[in-house]
Amino acid sequence: MNPAWRDRILAGIAAVLAIGLSYHLAEGSLLWPVAVAVLAAGAILVRLTKLPLDALTLGLLLIGYIVGNRGFAQLSLVPGLPLLPAEVGLAFGGACLLLSCARTTTLPWRSNALDYALLAWLGFGTARIVFDFPRHGFLALRDYAMVYYAGFFFIAQHLARDARQRRFLVACLLVASVCLPPAFALSENFPELLHRVLAVQGVPLIFHKGDLAPLFMALGAVLLFLWASSRQRWWARPLATGLVVWVCLGENRAAIAGLLGALGWITLSRHRLFPATQAAVLLAVLTVVVALATIGQHAWSQRRLSELTDRAMSVVDVSGRFAYRQEHGTIKSDNNQFRWVWWRTVVDETVRENPLLGLGFGHDLARGFLQTYNPEMAEDFTARSPHNMVVTTFGRLGLVGVALYGWILALMAIRTWRVVRAPASDGVHVALWAALWAIAISACLGVVLEGPMGAVVFWTLLGLAQAYRSQPSESGTGGEAESEIETETAEWEGRRTMETAAR
User: Fold this and answer.
1) CA angle 128, 132, 133 (to 5 degrees)
2) Most CB atoms within 10 A, among 33, 117, 152, 303?
3) Among 99, 102, 89, which Cα is nearest to 151's?
């Protein structure tokens, strides 16, 4: 085609497109303008980074859910339609995965126990929603999210088989870990500014769920410190230590439990300097606080020491009989009772009605709890998950679901043990598996894996960790030896090549 005519045609198309988008903007509709803007930005990023659009999309989701959290999760291009970032990313990433597998005549999963466990989890949950959707409609789909978010595992695992895409996803996690502290500080201290400046249709892009921000800071601390340990990034270690101190001195006990679980796994590896350093720093901070409170009679130190003591006592206070010096401790004790009554109510109802297959998606797991705990809360109570992934799984999917979820956790534990004990595993490899346990443990004490804020990060992290290949040690001790995961990948690819040649 004549270049002049080609330019004229493109200019005409652009003019018509601009007029149409201007009309939609004037009418207050953001669907097509945002879609075109995203596609244009994606094309530019693909050209600049040489990365596929599905990898860029997944990286954006990781940064969005860690830094923006609940605010990012509530973005919707079409009001009233659940076209949310996680669902859009899952649909697009899944479509790209299927197209890639069709082009290379391979399956979208690998031949190992963890992949089969995730397939069984998705298969059983999908079979359950077929029966629950006609009865409960959209509520069943909303609860089914705890299952279908596992699809991010296969997308991340497929993308992470490429070295550049793997490094990009790890870089997104590190960028999010660095950006989270200032974003959280802005969210806590200047919420009105974020509502005015960083908002789409009245929804702020940065708005943090109280229990997830500390959890993601714990995750960021683990990633930053172990990433810096092999690359001499001096600034990352103090930041990681500061995040650990902030989490441990904070109010969220689930994040603390998750952080301690992650540090416990790291202690078993050759990177045990990290937990030892954090223990020494925390002991020093606690010593200073105690000294200021007892000797210096410092008001802030005395209050903080009382809060720490009350919080430690409240961990085992389920009956609410302990005496606390601060109202903070009483609140934590009441929170224990809140969870315990809800867990017991859901278990009793499931055992009574359908222990094998559960009560299904869409069933109101809070109804019996509210009747027992406080019937007056029924009008304003909107939570649907009993703040425990295991209990939620039992209530929704029964013993079969708990067995499948337990199978996934058991395989995670086996894989984590092998990675942390392998001399060739680099710091990032260990950090990925350890960080998974911070989320998994926290999910037993809060609503984490039932929603996109925690689930997208968890399942993506699991797929990335499963496909991660340890880099050669910079000190030369690791040589060019492949990790166990790399060996499995090579064997899998070899089998696929032989099958294709045979056909």
Assistant:
1) 115
2) 152
3) 89
pLDDT at res. 122: 97
Q: What is the pLDDT of residue 330?
A: 56
User: Is 435:442 a contact under the CB 8 Å cutoff?
Assistant: no
What is the distance of C-alpha 100 from the center of its chain? Answer: 25
What is the arithmetic mean of pLDDT over 70-98? 83
Contacts of 426 (CB under 8 A, 6+ apart): 230, 470, 471, 473, 478
Q: How far is CA 455 from CA 1, 145, 309, in A?
A: 50, 9, 32
What is the residue whose two structure tokens read 């942390």? Answer: 420
453 touches 65 (CB < 8 A): yes
Structure tokens, 212: 């997830």
As a whole number of angstroms, the distance between CA 285 and CA 296 comes to 15
Q: List strand residue ranges (DSSP E) for 256-336, in order.
A: none
| Distance between CA atoms of residues 260 and 315, nearest Å | 14
As a whole number of angstroms, the distance between CA 495 and CA 245 comes to: 48
Helix axis angle for 389-421 and 427-442, nearest 10°, is 160
| Rounded Cα distance, 314 and 378, in Å | 26
The DSSP bridge partners found for residue 204 are 199
Q: Determine phi and psi for 207, rounding to 5 degrees.
A: -155, 115
User: What length does the chain have?
Assistant: 503
What is the model's pTM? 0.85
Residue 473's pLDDT band, with cuts at 50, 70 and 90, is very low
User: Which of 41-45, 68-72, 476-480 shows the lowest mean pLDDT across its residues?
Assistant: 476-480
- Identity of residue 393: T
Asked whether the beta carbons of 140 and 130 are under 8 A apart, the reply is: no
Cβ proximity of 389 and 450 under 8 Å: yes
Q: What is the pLDDT of residues 217-263, one digit of tens each?
A: 999 999 998 888 766 677 888 899 999 989 988 778 889 999 999 99
Single out the residue of 163, 173, 164 nearest to residue 51, CA to CA: 164
Strands (E), 181-321: 199-200, 203-204
Report how many helices (DSSP H) and strands (DSSP E) the chain contains, helices first.
21, 2
pLDDT in tens, 103-141: 988 889 999 999 999 999 999 999 999 999 999 988 999
User: Could you tell me which of 274, 277, 280, 242 has the C-alpha nearest to residue 430?
Assistant: 274
Cα distances from 349 to residues 279, 353, 391, in angstroms, run: 43, 6, 11
Residue 413 CA to residue 186 CA, distance in Å, equals 37
